[in-house]
Records
---
Amino acid sequence: MSSKYPVVLIAGDGIGPEVSKAVVNILEAAGAPLEWIACDAGLAALDKGKEVMPEETLEAVKKHHVALKGPCTTPVGKGFTSVNVQLRKKLNLFAAIRPVRSLEGVPTRYENVDMVIVRENTEGLYSGVENEIIKGLVTSMKVVTVDGTERIARRAFQYIQKREREKLTVFHKANIMKMSDGLFLKSVEKIHQDEFAEIPYDTQIIDAGCMKLVQDPTKFDVLLMENFYGDVVSDLAAGLVGGLGVVPGSNIGFEDAVFEAVHGSAPDIAGKGVANPLALLMSGVMMLNHMYETNGDKQIHAAAESIKAAYNKALAEGDKTGDLGGSLDTDGFAKAVIKRLT
């Protein structure tokens, strides 16, 4: 019998506690040997008189190295830094990885989509360096470093090797931003030539690449891009397969990793028991796979495979929540998945 592995659970705000509870129930039913360490962030933390990103939550992730996070709300216009931005910066979670694939039972205008967005997570236009030069004139600094780019490029190529993917495509705008995107592109190309020359590789100017994405997303496999582009394109790609409610998300560094639902906290439906837990569940499966790669525990791997097969079967057989055209509530979908676990 495997020992239990500690995982920090940040339930989040709005629908976060509801979907988190459903996912915890499914992971436990699948036999995942996890011990949950409950921590706060977002409005849930503020309501308890804490900072929006409490130091104790950061320390818990640093101690246990893995977290599952529901959607957190950052108050708008009140001077609070985003929970997600703080997690990425303070834990050096430089790689955001978001798989996007078509799901049977979730019809869209596209079929057989199967791509992965790899996003540099700490630099670019989201570096947070903004200045008001004079009244009416504000600048935002786009930060690109060789070290930051090489580490995300290396992570993308390693992902392709581990998951037996086919090729890497880099989205950029180096034709216009010749220094910043130019440095990003040159740094990725160097890592490719020096360390991963056997992996097929190409580039796309981002506007043309986005056009091609919506023309035929099946032409793409693994996409790599800087922070702002990755934020936009990963949501665009999610829209190709049914939206943010059907895609997982992860933020990974050298030591720590946070897996999260990438959709919002949906306060309008909070407490009604109708939220779809699928995105957080899929993120939970990503978390289990990450843990298996780290510790080699076959019970962790078996749980991940069982859950993925179960939610795929549930969707294919029409057991879905209302947002996907079904009739199940949050708990009903969790039970439908648990019923199909092997």
---
Amino acid sequence: MKLALALGMLALTSSCTATSNTSTENQRPQKVTDVAHSANPTKTTIKIDGSSTVYPITQAIAKEFQASPQNKVEVSVNVSGTTGGFEKFCAGETDINNASRPILKEEMEVCNKNGVRYMELPVAFDALTIAVNPQNDWAKDITVAELKKIWEPEAQGKITRWNQIRASFPNRPLTLYGAGKKSGTFDYFTEATVGKVRSSRNDYTASEDDEVLVQGISKDPNALGYFGFAYYEKNQTKLKVLAVNNGKGSVLPSRQTVEQAKYQPLSRPLFIYVNYWNAKNRGTIYQFADFYLKKAPTAARIVGYVPLPDEVYRIDSVHLGTGKAGTVFAGKAQLDLTIAELLRKQKQF
């Protein structure tokens, strides 16, 4: 097994091909040693934006990184959603983008146009969570078909009461909370439930900030919404989670159900996208990204997500160190992707 892994890693470093940034593929990045020693000794800023789902992991790691006296750097972590973050990242305005879905084709094209190269680094797995208010004593689970019934565009202005979802539910108003349209969670959820990416009703409270959704649901007895599992873990006393039935029985989101590929189709990988080629503080960005990969398993577990196998983080480190730009996802999210399948995709990078 160890020999096979070693051979696989050797193949990675010698024969990797990228799926994007073809306009700059012939430009060799600096060697790791060159990058690591090119950091500006004065205090610099690493700019990070993007997904609110990935935010808790990145924020926790950024705080730990900045706490070290030897790291004379400010790490700025903001939230504008995966899509909003890619808009800034592909314009060269940020160094790292938090993403709850893979980069899309149109985003790849903008990055190429602007000469922005990137490394796609999976950092954790998430269980996209369906939550209601704790006063809700009638709903314990929900089917994927019922989620489609609630969220498809045709439901707008029509599916407005709980008993329209399931006859056994009470005749009470239904108020909805969900991801904003610049969120990767919005993209993934709509494709997983409605069957078409970005296809959704519009008459709901939308935000790229999951904290806003948590607060809304926690104060509304008639609410139903969705967001990343870490936000449920952090606010369990304020929320009630629903099991999801995809036709194979109702399953609650948890680390175990994600690892066992039982919580489908709402399990998904989380990423950071890193660009250190064009930055003046490229050495610092490399050092932070390297630090991030070392701390990601612990940080993911602490904030409520599922760490990836050690081999994935080792492969991430190889890609970071050798500057392997690109994506393995061909510009689209993939539903029902398991951790094992992600591992195989990383091997094919």
